[in-house]
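Lab notebook: predicted structure, single chain.

Context: the supervisor wants predicted structures on file for every construct in the current expression panel, including those that have not yet been purified. This is the next one on the list. No modifications to the sequence; it matches the entry in the shared construct table.
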Amino acid sequence: MPPQQQAYPGLTSSMHPRPRDEMREYRAASRLIGKRALVTGGDSGIGRAVAIGFAKEGADVAIAYLSEDEDAEHTKACIEAEGRKCVAIRGDLTEEAHCLHAVETTVDELGSIDILVNNVAFQKPVQQFEDITTLQWDRTFRTNVYSYFWCAREAVRHMEEGGVIINTSSVNGLRGNQQLIDYAATKGAVNALTYSLAQSLLDRRIRVNAVAPGPVWTPLIPSTMPVDKVEHFGEQVPMERAAHPDEIAPSYIFFASDQDSSYYTGEIFAAIGGETMPG
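Prediction complete. Output recorded below exactly as produced.
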């Protein structure tokens, strides 16, 4: 990647190269006709690709995002171009009240909620453990874990049998990361939350799964990583490159579709570019 940096949370149009995140090559099969979905962090990156993929499969989609209005409007336009309804919900998901607002707005505007994708994320690399402040630790957990809990708790109040929750984890939640300690800890928590919720909601026929990608080229990377890390981002995996969001989104579509994954709950898909995980 060319050397580049942005202010958090980053903007897709300022990335070089631009990520493939509009699912242009995706061929839909009407898997989600009549479904209503909320995708947090749905303005860009994996969230954008998932939201557009859901729309291509027939779902109406709400996207919750922090402040990236340009990205959110572009995603909304892509969803509407598929003939589906889109609601863009701006605000800070580290606040419980806004998480509840995002779910309630989805229900009010789309009629209900069938699919929740918890995808919003924050990370900040450090050189050594002592560099992590309590403020950073709290922000990372409130973004990556608390928002997942708050959105899921509110969503299940409205979900009927057949509801789906999909959490975005990370390879770092499976193996740790010496420079992303707090981020990796949150993704480990997301994995445990996924396993536990899958068990808890089984009798209500609500399925809960997670996708744990390796390196993916999204605005989070140039807006949180130093220039040298961005330049070599993704080179360490066997495929020697980062994924594009379009390559990850089909896993979410699989989990969202009863047609494809009705027997899957409590699973974590690790899309990590050829790397194998011990244990």
